[in-house]
Amino acid sequence: MSELQNKADELGGKVKEAAGDAVGNDDLANQGKGEQTASKIKQGAEDLKDKAAETLGKLTDK
After folding, report:
1. Tens place of pLDDT for every residue, the chain, 62 residues?
2. Biased composition, Basic and acidic residues: where in the chain (predicted)?
3. I want to staple 25 with a disulfide (CB 3.0 to 4.6 A). Which of 20, 36, 48, 62 is the partner?
4. For residues 33 and 14, is the Cβ–Cβ distance under 8 A?
5. Dist CA 19 CA 12 (whole Å)
6. Distance CA 8, CA 21 (A)
7. Which residues contact 22 (CB under 8 A, 6 or more apart)?
8. What's the CA gap between 38 and 28, in Å, rounded?
9. Cα separation of 6 and 29, whole Å?
10. For residues 3 and 61, what is the distance between their CA atoms, to the nearest angstrom?
11. Can you tell me the distance from the alpha carbon of 27 to that of 34, in angstroms, rounded to the nearest whole number?
12. pTM exceeds cut of 0.90
């Protein structure tokens, strides 16, 4: 998943959370919070994968 897709998912979660808060729908607000958290976890995993590939590349170039 790309960084752009993760940001879009995070934004969608923020919209759901705000909508849920606005209409008093705790389930929708919590779903939005969950989507934001999932997006951040996915982005962290992508960052870790990129760092691992970068480190491996540095090790194999020597």
Report:
1. 688 998 999 999 999 999 999 999 999 999 999 999 999 999 999 999 999 999 998 888 75
2. 1-19, 43-62
3. 20
4. no
5. 11
6. 20
7. none
8. 15
9. 19
10. 27
11. 10
12. no
How buried is 39 (Cβ within 10 angstroms: 0-12 exposed, 13-18 middle, 19+ buried)? buried
Tell me the chain's radius of gyration from C-alpha atoms: 17
Structure tokens at 6: 């993760």
Dist. CA 38–CA 49, nearest whole Å: 17
**40's tokens:** 């951040």
Let me know if 22 is exposed, middle or buried by CB neighbors in 10 A (0-12, 13-18, 19+): exposed
